[in-house]
Write a structure and sequence with these properties.
The protein has a two-stranded antiparallel sheet with strand order 1-2. A hairpin with a 2-residue loop joins strand 1 and strand 2 (about 100-105). It has helices spanning about 20-40, 55-80, 80-85, 110-175, and strands at about 95-100, 100-105. Helix 1 (about 20-40) packs across helix 4 and helix 2 crosses helix 4 (about 110-175). The longest helix is centred in the C-terminal third of the chain and has 68 residues, at about 110-175. It contains 4 helices and 2 strands. About 25% of the residues are buried. Keywords: Membrane, Transmembrane, Transmembrane helix.
Length: about 180
């Protein structure tokens, strides 16, 4: 049963440079805060949860991302290159894998790092899409009283997810476009 959440193990990757911490958590949190402040200053003039609103537009975008992420996952996992299977340069990022039913800490290879990344992005885009659909369907039925108390926390979660997805996607594109083929 816990294997269903293994795509989220990407978030447990550690590196002495703390780059995963910055890309996965700190940068998205800071950007989310900035966007929330800007939206709060704009007030009610921004359509967030309504028809043709921000969430509706983001939903159209994220629905296509799952296919891209699955294609990237397939490409990375099947690309025939011994370079991808070598441990990343020291200090290599570390991650936990499940081997013979036991969690083990291993130094990451580029292939393992990228497959973990794109598995995570696929799962996140699926969850974002499902949550956005549910929110758009339920928002009118929730009424003004509940909708107002959920507005900012809900918006913050959606913004954090899309900003984190963007940061991790660009990190993945860097690896696919440049770092994957660059000698150590």
């Amino acid at each position: 049963m816990l294997d269903l959440v293994r795509p989220f193990s990407f978030l447990t990757i550690r590196h002495p440079s703390r780059l995963p911490l910055w890309i996965n958590w700190l940068l998205p949190a800071l950007a989310t805060l900035v966007v929330l402040v800007v939206l709060a200053r704009l007030g009610s003039s921004v359509n967030v949860f309504g028809s043709q609103g921000l969430l509706d537009r983001l939903l159209g975008f994220t629905q296509t991302l799952a296919g891209f992420y699955i294609a990237a996952l397939a490409a990375v996992s099947s690309f025939n290159s011994p370079h991808l299977d070598r441990t990343m340069p020291n200090p290599a990022p570390t991650m936990y894998i499940k081997y013979n039913g036991v969690m083990q800490k291993v130094a990451a290879t580029r292939r393992r790092f990228l497959t973990s990344m794109f598995a995570y992005l696929t799962a996140l885009s699926f969850l974002f899409t499902l949550a956005a659909i549910a929110t758009l369907v339920l928002a009118p039925a929730l009424g003004k009283s509940m909708a107002s108390s959920l507005h900012w926390p809900g918006l913050g979660m959606f913004l954090f997810a899309i900003i984190q997805m963007t940061c991790v996607t660009f990190w993945g594109l860097f690896y696919l476009g440049e770092r994957m083929l660059t000698p150590d």
